[in-house]
Every structure is written in structure tokens, then in C-alpha cells.
Design goal:
By secondary structure, the protein is α/β, with parallel strands linked by helices. The protein contains six helices and six strands, in the order ααβββαααβαββ. Strands 1-2-3-4-5-6 form a six-stranded mixed β-sheet, sandwiched between helices.
Length: about 200
């Protein structure tokens, strides 16, 4: 019986990953339980990247049932709150889920990122989250923006961020951008870019 249940879970996982031609498949979910799993798994990948990139030990995520924030980590004996938000062009993802393929044709062309559109999207993401917290008189220690765009990888985003200004928000103390695992980089953690703030001195 356990084997059948395992097979069913794997089949469902594969189906979710492939939904919409695989557009942002790592972060696909169908219900609140799925969403919570995706967020915690992504938060733990971010924690592993913080160790690998900056030597900042955070341990495993502790879920917060009364979010925001989505979860907590332990930073040098201090509890810090981490909120997660996906960077995805929802209108493009919706088109992929209906019928269009993101790998060629009109949708493929529309999905390509210019510097202007990228910076606007990042600033909008931080701004909208910050305004939400401000209205509720909440401050979060870290916002992790995890990227679900197929053609926006670490190298491309790093170049788009070069010599660019991203606006911070007073209700978000630190912001990082996290990318899905990229086998060709030769490291076993997910790529990450700091947007602003520095947990090494936090």
C-alpha cells in the first residue's frame, strides 16, 4: 500500500512540475498545503545558499502558522522572520497553461527580459510587499524573491542588475533573489543574488 501511495505522490509531483509546459515547474502548486511545502522547501534552499555563498548559518526553517512572515530562522541565537514571494510573469504563465509553448513562437518572444522590464518587476515586487506590511504595521527581516521565470537565470539577472538601483522598503530590512538549481554551475546550492541588506552584519 505504501508503494502505491509513493507512486501516486510521485505521479502528482511530476504532473505539477510539467503543468503549463513546465513554466516555473519547481514552484507549481494546487492547494494551500502544496504552497506551504513549496515555500518551506524554497526557504531551506535559500538557507543552504546563504551558508555556501556568505558563510551565514541559519539552520532549517521553522514554519509560522500566523504568517507573515512565512517562516523563521535562527541567526546567531536570534529569531529572524523570512517572507517569500515568487517572481513570475503571471500573464505569460497563464498563456502557457492554456496552450502556448514557452519554448518558441510569440510567447517565447514575449518572455524575454529587457533591463527596464526586469528592474520594474523587481521594484514592483518589493514595493507591493512592503506596502502590505506597512499597512499592517509589520516589519520582516528578509524577503526572498524566488524566480519562476524559465529564461531569467542567475547569470542573466546578475547582468541586468549591474549598475542598477533597486529601491528598498523600510518594512523589509533585507532582500535576496533566489534561482532554481542550475546544474551547469558546478555547485550543489541554488544561485542567489543579494538585492540589499547584509545578514553577515545583521
Amino acid at each position: 500500500m505504501a508503494k502505491l501511495e509513493d507512486d501516486d505522490a510521485l505521479e502528482r509531483f511530476v504532473r505539477l512540475m510539467n503543468k503549463g509546459h513546465g513554466y516555473g515547474g519547481t514552484f507549481n502548486y494546487e492547494n494551500a498545503r502544496d504552497k506551504r511545502y513549496v515555500e518551506l522547501d524554497t526557504a531551506n534552499e535559500w538557507s543552504r545558499s546563504m551558508v555556501a555563498e556568505f558563510g551565514v548559518e541559519l539552520g532549517m526553517a521553522k514554519p509560522n502558522l500566523n504568517d507573515p512572515p512565512d517562516c523563521y530562522f535562527n541567526l546567531r541565537g536570534r529569531q529572524i522572520g523570512v517572507e517569500l514571494v515568487q517572481l513570475v510573469e503571471q500573464k505569460h504563465k497563464n498563456r502557457a497553461q492554456k496552450s502556448e509553448t514557452p519554448h518558441h513562437g510569440k510567447l517565447f518572444m514575449d518572455m524575454q527580459w529587457s533591463k527596464e522590464r526586469f528592474l520594474a518587476k523587481v521594484n514592483q515586487t518589493i514595493g507591493q510587499k512592503g506596502q502590505k506590511y506597512e499597512l499592517r504595521s509589520i516589519e520582516v527581516d528578509v524577503l526572498v524573491i524566488f524566480v519562476g521565470e524559465p529564461f531569467l537565470n542567475f547569470v542573466a539577472a546578475k547582468e541586468l542588475l549591474k549598475d542598477s538601483m533597486i529601491g528598498s522598503h523600510q518594512n523589509i530590512r533585507n532582500a535576496y533573489m533566489l534561482f532554481d538549481y542550475e546544474p551547469g554551475r558546478g555547485v550543489d546550492h541554488w544561485p542567489m543574488l543579494p538585492i540589499y541588506g547584509d545578514l553577515r552584519i545583521y
